[in-house]
Amino acid sequence: MNIVFREFNPFDLWIWLEFETVSTPQEQQYVEEVFNSWFYLGKLGAFNAENMQVNDRGIEISYMDYSEDQLEQAMIAPMHNMGEFEYLQTWGRCWFDLGTSDAIALDILINALTHLSNDYIAIRQVIFGGENEDWPVEKSSAAMFN
């Protein structure tokens, strides 16, 4: 699965998926569940790199003291909006306003899509940002969420 980054605006971001074949309704459901789950976690502020206490601790977390003060002092980092997933031939796309969520959100999504591609539906590439010449973006798509 190839990962491509084009023009990137976290507040107006199209994520494009190119599948090996035209996706079936069941395969589309898998894809949409991944994106919906990712977005809901983002909406709750889960992708906040300011509070990575467990990760920062390393491999030994037995009896770790978790600081509620550090948790409360971290600025919130929620995603704001997600559009409807759309499909055209071997392509799928969805619009996002990532809000103030941190870039770790993208790594987590890429990890999930890699597993999805290996086990359930072959994804040729994931493109973050920009537009596809064969499938133009209506300029009003993002405006409906503002």
Describe this structure in words.
The protein is α+β, with helices and mostly antiparallel strands and 146 residues long. The chain has helices at 25-43, 53-57, 68-73, 104-119, 140-143, and strands spanning 2-5, 13-19, 81-82, 86-88, 91-97, 123-128. Strands 1, 2, 3, 4, 5 and 6 form a six-stranded mixed beta sheet that branches. A hairpin with a 2-residue loop joins strand 4 and strand 5. It is globular.
Radius of gyration: 17 Å
Helix-residue proportion: 25-40%
- The CATH homologous superfamily is named ACT domain
Strand content: 15-25%
Gross geometry: globular
Put simply, the count of helices is: 5
The largest sheet is: 6 strands, mixed
- What's the number of extended β-strand segments? 6
> What structural category arises from helix and sheet content?
alpha+beta
Our measurement of the CA-to-CA distance between the termini, rounded to an integer number of angstroms, reads 32 Å
Uncertain ranges: none
- The level-1 CATH class: Alpha Beta
Average pLDDT metric: 91
Provide the CATH topology.
Alpha-Beta Plaits
CATH architecture: 2-Layer Sandwich
Tell me the series of helices and strands, N- to C-terminal.
EEHHHEEEHEH
